[in-house]
Specification:
Layout lengths: L9 H8 L3 H25 L8
Length: 53
């Protein structure tokens, strides 16, 4: 399984420190979905069956 890596600038960290809890949850859910989708594509390319539901 590949792991997600994100490089953060000082400006971005400052922006994130001002995020509302709902915005943080949305970011985490979007990131999780991107990582899951990326891993699913890797499995398909390797010939493994994957459900995207």
């Amino acid at each position: 399984m590949k792991k997600g890596m994100q490089y953060l600038t000082e400006e971005y960290l400052e922006y994130c420190s001002k995020m509302k809890p709902e915005e943080i949850l949305e970011f985490l859910e979007d990131f999780r979905n991107l990582l899951y989708f990326s891993n699913s594509l890797d499995n398909v390319q390797e010939g493994n069956s994957v459900s995207l539901s």
